User: Which sequence fits this backbone?
């Protein structure tokens, strides 16, 4: 562990490898008054990001910076244990392409069932931020692009399969975050605050609480989105019932309103808590239990963490190496368009595994046999 100190606080860094740009972002946080008094812990998968370093946790205080969580509010990973089943990868791929919108696409109709008050919550926000209400609801059950994916992983010993889905709050989260960050900029201008670019804040009593309420709704939408996609695949393709299956969900861009911890590219890891940490398209995911380490802010890394930006990945990784690395994983998505998501764009699995011993009890690593990923 490395301790980094600044004008308003200090950060515990649990990474053996960290790029200079990420260190500079953390230093900027520590010299920013909105971080004063918070416990800050940085995860092993840390890397620089737009607006905020990724792999970052802090206890909440009286200020909020919308850009810390960022635009994919509530993004996370949902997994269902399918058991020993027989299916054809090409049939699953056709089903997903037919039934799960991806990229910028959304569903042509509203979900069959939503929590009774949820549409009203969405309508209140879409009216405020000028979004199409029905289109937002139609985005529930859609994958998106970038690093979002649908995967089938397999336990090596038992041969049992897992459905794993990584997605978030889609355009609704993006527009909600942008709306409130604009409000934060306006507040900073009004108060003549000299702050680092994109780190303008809102006090709780002057717009911060409104952001948190809207954020709760975006986090709920992200959860419903993953559940809707999983439900279609589990019920309509595998002919199983979700309620009969073991389920794990780890959210990694959110504020937990119970423990008041902000997690940007980090997951909750309380003692005994089931969790999933995806690694990359080739290496699968870690299934484990949290150890509840207070020094880590009761958190764990959310994945392997990027070592190459999307631009650098497409410039420096060869398509041949990408194809070679994905042998043994059925995928119709391995191409130049997803090159920035290849295993080589991320930190090695070993570098994450050896650095999470204090925070996570690893139970097993499930390996991918099928992967679907939309282009960036």
Assistant:
């Amino acid at each position: 562990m490395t301790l980094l100190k600044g004008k308003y606080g200090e950060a515990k860094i649990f990474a053996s490898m960290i790029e200079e740009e990420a260190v500079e972002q953390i230093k900027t946080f520590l010299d920013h008054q909105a971080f004063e008094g918070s416990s800050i812990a940085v995860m092993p998968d840390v890397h620089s990001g737009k607006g905020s370093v990724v792999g970052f946790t802090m206890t909440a205080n009286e200020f909020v910076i919308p850009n810390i969580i960022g635009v994919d509010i509530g993004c996370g990973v949902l997994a269902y244990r399918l058991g020993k089943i027989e299916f054809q990868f090409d049939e699953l791929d056709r089903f997903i392409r037919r039934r799960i919108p991806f990229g910028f696409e959304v569903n042509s109709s509203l979900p069959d069932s939503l929590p009774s008050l949820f549409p009203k919550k969405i309508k209140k926000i879409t009216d405020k931020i000028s979004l199409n209400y029905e289109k937002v609801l139609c985005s529930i059950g859609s994958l998106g692009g970038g690093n979002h994916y649908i995967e089938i992983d397999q336990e090596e010993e038992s041969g049992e399969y897992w459905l794993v889905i990584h997605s978030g709050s889609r355009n609704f989260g993006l527009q909600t975050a942008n709306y409130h960050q604009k409000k934060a900029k306006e507040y900073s201008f009004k108060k003549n605050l000299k702050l680092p670019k994109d780190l303008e804040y809102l006090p709780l009593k002057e717009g911060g609480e409104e952001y948190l309420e809207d954020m709760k709704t975006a986090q709920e939408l992200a959860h419903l989105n993953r559940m809707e996609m999983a439900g279609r695949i589990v019920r309509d393709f595998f002919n199983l019932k979700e309620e009969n299956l073991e389920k794990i969900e780890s959210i990694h861009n959110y504020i937990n309103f119970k423990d008041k911890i902000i997690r940007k590219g980090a997951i909750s890891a309380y003692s005994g808590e089931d969790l999933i940490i995806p690694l990359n398209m080739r290496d699968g995911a870690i299934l484990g239990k949290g150890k509840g380490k207070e020094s880590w802010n009761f958190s764990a890394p959310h994945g392997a963490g990027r070592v190459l930006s999307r631009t650098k990945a497409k410039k420096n990784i060869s398509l041949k190496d990408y194809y070679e690395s994905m042998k043994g994983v059925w995928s119709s998505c391995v191409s130049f368009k997803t090159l920035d998501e290849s295993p080589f764009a991320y930190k090695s699995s070993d570098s994450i595994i050896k650095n999470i011993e204090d925070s996570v009890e690893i139970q097993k690593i499930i390996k991918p046999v099928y992967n679907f990923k939309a282009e960036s």
